[in-house]
């Protein structure tokens, strides 16, 4: 829990453009060596900006056994406020970076909470970062953010620190991570929360709920775990090179690190516009072949033409439209894109975009209202959302934690960008945890659903195993991140 003071801190962001020619992996290494690093993006596939930050001024941690998370979140967001005489630009201009766990949904709806919270990680973990390096891949340029607080003269000192980080990154030579081995994922190489037989039994129960009319769709998942003592940043850099994802992220604190290679945008807020891009539908893609190769063309066509996958995405679009209706001006919600197929290193995904115009002005209270209306994302629960979450809690043996929550940032201007934390590895106490799932509907085939989860795990598992096999690779020293 963050320490709170009685009066808000007046904040004035300063933005400075700068020239830099460097490797983003080298910059990630520099940032990761600092206290409580936070990296959002960090690879050329990122849609929008990449953020490199460290050394937060203050941190909010909320755990599952505590109460009133939104009250704590509101106090923390109100702790630092923009100086009204100096409006901030759009996008990240200093602010809060971190993660929200899936179980935050328990505090929005009345849910039973039977799944064991075996990892005990925070449900909310946000740091307030008063300095950051921003990379814009569209224009291949860097900018620096330094937040002056309560009228102090600290901005120049913060800019000096950021320039020193850039200079250190320029001097670094980052070796290539081990080359990928993208063979099919073998689940026996990791421990799982459930067996394949248990998975099929859970899907049978899920089908019964669907047939009985309780739900139309359930997102059911399983968690794989393996020993991991290497530096988690090596895995992050591996993913960014061989499995670049548009909503990647890296967070580290104490003996925990989050390495996300998420392809999915949960929420993006820019001024009054809000958008969400749910994913529903997956087919394997051979990264060694071009997309016009017969094998990949066949998988693309199968996903594009699948009536089952089209119906799944349509259900989630309706759910997201209903969620946005709670916070958007009447008549402004619309489906900007009903369905498109996007290619990622090991899979094809079907993606939609739903947008609207927010009714509330940008305030901490608006951030709370957005989260209460939309969290967690419908693509990773099922529909209807509340009943789907109840069934998930009964079927999955462990709490999801960060998995299927959100990782990203909230700006001082209350712009927001959060991913859906899928394709995400949690390194905790020398163990790497990787959770994968998929949407189950009435005509789902259990064997096909099982294989889809393995396809989704393939790239992250390959990276984890490749880094683990490295000889002489650095072991993690988590004390530097405390």
Give a written overview of the molecule:
The protein is globular. It is of the alpha+beta class and 482 residues long. It contains ten helices and 23 strands. The strands form two sheets. Strands 1, 2, 3, 5, 8, 9, 10, 11, 12, 13, 19, 22 and 23 form a 13-stranded mixed beta sheet that branches. Strands 4, 6, 7, 14, 15, 16, 17, 18, 20 and 21 form a ten-stranded antiparallel beta sheet that branches. It has a single domain, classed as Anthranilate synthase (4-Layer Sandwich), CATH 3.60.120.10. The two termini are 15 Å apart. The protein is 29% helix and 30% strand.
Task: Describe this protein with a few key phrases.
single chain, 482 residues, alpha+beta, Anthranilate synthase, 13-stranded mixed sheet, 10-stranded antiparallel sheet, 10 helices, 30% strand, disordered N terminus
CATH topology category name: Anthranilate synthase
- Determine Rg (CA atoms, Å): 21 Å
Number of H/I helices: 10
Poorly predicted spans: 1-5
Major beta-sheet overview: 13 strands, mixed
Structural class: alpha+beta
Measured as a percent range, the helix fraction is 25-40%
State the oligomer.
single chain
Give the SSE layout.
Elements (H helix, E strand, L loop, with lengths): L8 E10 L5 H9 L5 E3 L9 E4 L4 E5 L6 H11 E3 L12 E6 L23 E6 L1 E6 L4 E9 L5 H17 L19 E2 L3 H16 L5 E11 L4 H11 L4 E7 L2 E7 L2 E6 L2 E5 L1 E6 L9 H12 L1 H19 L8 E10 L3 E11 L6 H11 L7 E2 L1 H11 L10 E6 L4 E4 L4 E5 L2 E10 L5 H24 L13
Parallel strand pairs: 1-5
Antiparallel strand pairs: 1-9, 2-3, 2-12, 3-8, 4-7, 6-7, 6-20, 8-9, 10-11, 11-19, 11-23, 12-13, 13-22, 14-15, 14-21, 15-18, 16-18, 17-18, 20-21, 22-23
């Amino acid at each position: 829990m963050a320490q709170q003071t009685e009066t808000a801190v007046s904040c004035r962001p300063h933005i400075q453009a700068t020239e830099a020619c460097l490797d983003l992996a080298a910059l990630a290494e520099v940032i990761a060596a600092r206290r409580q690093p936070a990296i959002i993006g960090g690879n050329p596939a990122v849609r929008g900006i990449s953020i490199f930050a460290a050394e937060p001024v203050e941190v909010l941690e909320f755990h599952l056994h505590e109460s009133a998370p939104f009250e704590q979140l509101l106090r923390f967001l109100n702790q630092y406020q923009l100086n009204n005489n100096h409006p901030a630009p759009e996008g990240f201009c200093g602010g809060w970076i971190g993660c929200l766990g899936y179980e935050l949904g328990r505090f929005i709806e009345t849910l039973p909470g039977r799944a064991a919270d075996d990892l005990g990680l925070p449900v909310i973990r946000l740091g307030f970062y008063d300095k950051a390096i921003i990379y814009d891949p569209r224009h291949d340029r860097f900018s620096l953010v330094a937040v002056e607080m309560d009228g102090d003269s600290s901005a120049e000192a913060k800019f000096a620190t950021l320039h020193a980080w850039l200079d250190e990154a320029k001097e670094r030579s980052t070796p290539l991570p081990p080359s990928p081995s993208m063979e099919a994922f073998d689940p026996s190489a990791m421990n799982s929360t459930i067996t394949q037989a248990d998975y099929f039994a859970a899907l049978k129960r899920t089908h019964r709920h669907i047939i009985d009319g309780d739900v139309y769709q359930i997102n059911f998942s399983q968690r794989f775990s393996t020993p991991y003592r290497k530096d988690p940043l090596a895995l992050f850099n591996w993913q960014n090179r061989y499995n670049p994802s548009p909503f990647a992220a890296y967070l580290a604190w104490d003996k925990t690190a989050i390495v996300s290679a998420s392809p999915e945008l949960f929420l993006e807020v820019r001024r009054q516009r809000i958008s969400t891009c749910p994913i529903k539908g997956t087919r394997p893609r051979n990264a060694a072949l071009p997309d016009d190769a017969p094998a990949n063309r066949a998988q693309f066509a199968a996903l594009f033409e699948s009536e089952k996958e089209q119906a799944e995405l349509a259900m989630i679009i309706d759910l997201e439209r209903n969620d946005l209706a709670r916070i958007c001006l009447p008549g402004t919600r619309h489906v900007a894109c009903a369905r498109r197929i996007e290619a990622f290193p090991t899979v094809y995904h079907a993606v939609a975009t739903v947008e609207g115009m927010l009714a509330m002005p940008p305030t901490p209270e608006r951030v709370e209202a957005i989260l209460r209306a939309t969290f967690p994302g419908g693509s990773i629960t099922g529909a209807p959302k509340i009943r789907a979450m109840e069934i998930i809690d009964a079927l999955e043996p462990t709490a999801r934690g960060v998995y299927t929550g959100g990782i990203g940032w909230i700006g001082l201007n209350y712009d927001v960008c959060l991913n859906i934390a899928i394709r995400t590895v949690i390194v905790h106490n020398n163990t790497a945890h990787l959770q994968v799932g998929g949407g189950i509907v009435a005509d789902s085939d259990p064997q096909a659903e099982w294989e889809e989860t393995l396809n989704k795990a393939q790239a992250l598992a390959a990276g984890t195993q490749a880094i683990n096999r490295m000889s002489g690779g650095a072991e993690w020293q988590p004390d530097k991140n405390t």
